[in-house]
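INTERNAL AUDIT FORM
Audit reference: QA-55
Scope: verify that the stored structure record matches its stored sequence.
Auditor: D.O.
Record contents follow.
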Amino acid sequence: MKRNKTVDEFLASNQHWHAELEHLRNLILQTEMTETIKWGFPVYTISGKNVVGLGSFKAYVGIWFYQGVFLQDKAGKLINAQEGKTKAMRQWRFQSADEIEDQLVLDYLQEAIDNQKAGKEVKPDRKKDMPMASELTSALDANASLADAWQALTPGKRREYAEYIFEAKRETTRISRLEKVTPMILAGQGLNDKYK
């Protein structure tokens, strides 16, 4: 996946949704938020804090409200795209330019700005237990080099690997994932380093 370096580059690479994205961008730029690019996508901030982002997929374009859980959503437009995983973020999806109601979008944006200024924020739960698949613990017990490399990783990188292996439903998949990531662990790399 291409990593855009500017918002204009992002828009140019999304020709199918170009008009919708440009329209949403222009609405967002009417607010006091600062435009930037993060993770290859347009992100809009207040005092350096992410408030909203723009994204596009095959079937829709959307606005991501990073702390959308605090929005009143009186019009019932927001969804949680990853129930059970995403706590704060909410999306508003559009499948055509006709669905974009300018004043309603601006109202949601202003409420998101106000919430950010008020300090409303869901903090990540950093204390939760890290799930460890038995295949991973066995490999760490059996291989001292792997165990040393594991301990040298940051807690966040260990969590990414542990969850990646643990979430596989079948034992064969957990073993396959462990075999795939072992060289990365030994090299001190994080599972998602290439995306950062």
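Auditor finding: record pair retrieved intact. The CA atoms of residues 184 and 190 lie 7 Å apart.
Action required: none
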